[in-house]
């Protein structure tokens, strides 16, 4: 076992360097994993570009980012070893949100609200490195026939699964997904599998909308480009027309855009459910028209992290119910991470999901 490893160390916005650092030292309740694949999340892009602070006392580094992790077990502490939960060489993924399992929220099963939550790659060192450590309670084995790329995509799928759980889709519902990013495209597949009668995908880039159509969206709408064959100038009017005037029964917003969040209120009908999933800015606000929302008896929910959804997400990938590999459009080496994050955060159209392969 080496004593050092290569890692991309993030210091502050636009300042991340490939360095040799000390190999993580595991505690008795931890597992050491040799990293094989790590997804580039929108939050990684936000941290690098300075749009959001990392969850450290200073809001800056040094910290190793990366929380969509797959790899192989290479060492473990006394507790997981004595429980015989893992073997050396097991293919595993990491749930980055590590709860304490002792606070009031954890004892209620609301582990995403843990008062002492540690997030791998956000508040502690993550997976943009050759090795990463995690508590054994947050490490899950995956089938060997699942590729490391697919396994790394389970983390965002677990989050998407929790959001769709909150959406409570009923058979035949018209569901609108506001945003064809990686999470939105996973949600399209999930709501379709749960019996949605009509899935409408709304976005601003035709490339992603076409991908959504190939993955199960019945109708795609472009709200930004008048030259698009999917363009609509009046989203509310179009949804009303598509639903015979009743608007959507379910709307989920996997984007932090306040425009999309506001539109969700306008395109949802009576007795509808809206789920806000995407991460807005710290000072962003939406305005809820109190009386008409009350009179429509709407339910507004929010979705945070991925509590208790990981086995479901693993099965969804393994069974082929959700195709995550179709979303991976770009692959990068660890040494290219700074350039990769900038590219994935740029306005280049033909890209969906970037993955770092080690």
TrEMBL record:
The keyword GTP-binding does not apply. Keywords: Metal-binding, Oxidoreductase, Zinc. Residues 11-358 form the Enoyl reductase (ER) domain. InterPro entries: ADH-like_C, ADH-like_N, ER, GroES-like_sf, NAD(P)-bd_dom_sf, Zn_alcohol_dh. SMART domains: PKS_ER. SUPFAM superfamilies: GroES-like (SSF50129), NAD(P)-binding Rossmann-fold domains (SSF51735). It holds the Pfam family ADH_zinc_N. GO terms for molecular function: metal ion binding; oxidoreductase activity. PANTHER family: L-THREONINE 3-DEHYDROGENASE. This is Galactitol-1-phosphate 5-dehydrogenase. The lineage of its organism: Bacteria, Bacillati, Bacillota, Bacilli, Bacillales.
């Amino acid at each position: 076992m080496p004593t050092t490893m290569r890692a991309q160390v993030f210091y502050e916005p636009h300042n991340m360097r490939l360095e040799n650092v000390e190999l993580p030292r595991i505690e008795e309740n931890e597992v050491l994993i040799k990293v094989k694949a790590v997804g580039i999340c929108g939050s990684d892009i936000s941290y690098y570009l300075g749009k959001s602070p990392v969850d450290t006392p200073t809001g800056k580094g040094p910290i190793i980012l990366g929380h969509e992790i797959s790899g192989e077990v290479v060492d473990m502490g006394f507790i997981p070893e004595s429980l015989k939960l893992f073997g050396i060489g097991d293919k595993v993924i990491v749930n980055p949100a590590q709860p304490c399992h002792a606070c009031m929220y954890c004892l209620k099963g609301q582990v995403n609200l843990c008062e002492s939550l540690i997030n791998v790659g956000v508040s502690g060192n993550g997976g943009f490195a050759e090795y990463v450590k995690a508590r054994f309670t947050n490490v899950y084995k995956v089938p060997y026939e699942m590729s490391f790329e697919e396994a790394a995509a389970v983390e965002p799928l677990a989050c998407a699964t929790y959001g769709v759980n909150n959406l409570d889709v009923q058979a035949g519902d018209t569901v609108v997904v506001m945003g064809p990013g990686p999470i939105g495209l996973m949600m399209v597949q999930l709501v379709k599998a749960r019996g949605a009668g009509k899935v409408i995908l709304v976005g601003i880039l035709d490339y992603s909308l076409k991908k959504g159509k190939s993955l199960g969206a019945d109708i795609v709408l472009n709200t930004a480009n008048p030259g698009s064959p999917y363009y609509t100038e009046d989203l509310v009017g179009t949804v009303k027309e598509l639903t015979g005037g009743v608007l959507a029964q379910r709307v989920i917003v996997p984007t932090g855009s306040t425009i999309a969040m506001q539109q969700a209120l306008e395109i949802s009908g009576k007795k509808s459910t809206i789920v806000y999933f995407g991460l807005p800015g710290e000072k962003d606000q939406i305005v809820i028209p109190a009386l008409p929302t009350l009179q429509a008896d709407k339910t507004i929910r929010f979705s945070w992290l991925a509590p208790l959804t990981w086995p479901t997400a693993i099965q969804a990938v393994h069974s082929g119910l959700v195709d995550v590999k179709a979303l991976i459009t770009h692959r990068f080496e660890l040494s290219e991470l700074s350039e990769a994050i900038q590219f994935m955060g740029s306005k280049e159209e033909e890209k969906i999901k970037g993955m770092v392969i080690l």
